[in-house]
Design goal:
Length: 783
Amino acid sequence: MTSTSTKTLVNLLKNPISIKTKHQAKQLHAQIFKTETPNSPFFVSRLVSVYSNFNLLNDSLHLFNTLDSPPPALAWKSIIRCYTDNGLFVQSVLFFVKMMASGVHPDHNVFPSVLKSSTLLVDLRFGESVHACIVRLGFHLDLYTNNALMNMYAKFQSLDMNTNDEFYGLEVSGGHKIYVHEVLDGIPERNGDGQSKSVLVSCNEPLDHTNYWKHGFEESVVGSDDNVNLHCVELPCSDGARHVDEGSCAKTNSGRRLQMDSVRKVFEQMPTRDLVSWNTVIVGFARSGLFEEALEMVREMGNANLKPDSFTLSSVLPIFADYVDVIKGKEIHGYAIRHGLDTDVFIGSSLIDMYAKCTRVEDSHRVFGLLPRRDGISWNSIIAACVQNGMFDEGLKFFRQMLLAKIKPRHVSFSSIMPACAHMTALHLGKQLHGYIIRNGYDDNVFIASSLVDMYAKCGNIRLARCIFDKMELHDMVSWTSIIMGHALHGYALDAISLFEQMEEEGVKANSVAFVAALTACSHAGLIDKAWSYFNCMTRNYGIVPCLEHYTAVADLLGRAGKLEEAYEFISGMHIRPTGSIWSTLLSACRVHKNVELAEKVAEKIFMTDPDNTGAYILLTNVYSAARRWKDVLRLRIHMRNKGLKKTPACSWIEIKNKVHAFAAGDESHPCYDKINEALNVLLERMEREGYVPDTKEVLHDVEEEQKKYLLHYHSERLAIAFGIISTPDGMTIRVIKNLRVCGDCHTAIKFISKIVQREIIVRDNSRFHHFKDGKCSCGDYW
DNA sequence: TCCCTTCAAC
């Protein structure tokens, strides 16, 4: 090729498709270098374009900088697209601004890249300026430009904007924070005075390793100024990877920007539309929750003789996941199979998710098993599918398999798997994950931090949960509710309430779940007036319609306070149909307050809708035995046996050195049973010396008094605690989990034990945590 | 040159 003529080179460059490899591109470059005019704008700008087609950003930039100004539009466009393809959206946008300032007339095909970059920068004002620019230059009829425009507006409307509307944070791991000021002023009129426009950029640390700034922008880099309207974005790390797609917009509960009208407007004025146009509108509607509109567009698309492709299907499937409509979801699945799209990795993930949300997790497994290729998202989908359906062990199994398959977990993976640890109260697993998170630098991610807060709170370590919460830079709704709920469950109602108030002071408006947390706090501490004020405030001032959880917290509170009739009226007056579970709350209160009559009435309500509700039978049995109505007890027991209903056996467990030890009541099977028994007897002796008197009323069997004492002595939580005491060093906190409510006598006994052994003992029962310390419990004996 | 999938608090 050494003797290639200039004419041949020109022809080659005019038809760059014939250049198939990077190597050929470099050879071409070398040949041009040997010609008489290696620096001609034609050669250079064409070469820039060739390099940018191969995504060779540095080579393209190097050539671009050899051009005498003003470089031709083709060269600008190539660089801008290359920046966008490398995920360098700030640079892409700034290059566009600089191009406009240099007076070059852009051609239409620069706009899709610029719009994509401004979309991913989450800067609506800039995007709108670009739109104005497009109209001004007469490119508003261009198909690709319009598709990109619609996409931009659709993305903006589906993001939850921050409360103060000034900061649109994109989370990108390992990146710098770049502040872009006044970018929009940088778009001058065509042939306008570019010099008068400014592009101000600042960064939170020196950009020493990012050579992108060496290409014409040093003069624009200024120190950050808090007085300037800042639009904060993160610059991806220097490897140029496209991290932003995997990031997430900082969420708040402020109002959404409804931009679907803009999307619609663009769509309607388009002279021609292709499949991408339709898909863009469909996904826009789907993301903004306008599901019916999205589905209507799919039908209209058919009328326009366009067939749904893999983009359409994977955008539509999440709609049926949200609607929990497995019939429609299956229709899509069928369509995908008929058109050979069922092995598409995008559709596969949507299908896994759709089946999981419809509680058909076995179908999720099947889809996952049939996928020929699995990416991080398919793995996350199957992990989330398991966890969301309560299959925690399975979820962990998939998580381990994913690591073995050398798929690096991302923040989504952690927030999918962490609830499994929280639900299983598997502190050692949670800690392992936390270690992994710290080692890989994910601990500043708000989603991950929130799941950690929730996990530690649910696993009994509220102090660590609080510590992580306090270290978070930005608190979103979920982290607030996690920490409030955490304190509520641990009985620290006043802390929970003050956190709730702090949240409101910081401008985060409480949502429905936050009120559940606040009401739960009140319910666990018996704060009736406070609960009513929250409940009324929520419905009147916040326009939140109470749901079952709110009603349950209030009913529970009324019941515990002995206001049984009031609770009955409250439940009967709910705007939704009372469930068995909320009636059970009251039934439980009837047991505490020994109201047999109301208990029978309430049980009747439960059995009407749920005749096999074992819990209700047990509660009613307890009510009868507390009232010493042994005949009724017997009658119910026989009835239950005939129905094949069994009482859940009490069970407690404790983690010692990452191993879980479980105990049933009166359980003698543990290898260390002799030592446990010995410890229990020593404890009992010291407890009685301190004034402990067994409360045999808690034993609901019709047996002798001595027998009752014996039964209490071997309740499962006491076995677990005794084992904890003999297996751990002095002073170490003991954490025990029980599947049922702690009985009154054990509660008293554990208070004594905490004082005698001088340890903090934390017991989680089926609804809350008890922190026993120095003979007192955090629940204030109200649970 | 443009469009798609996964996650946290109840």
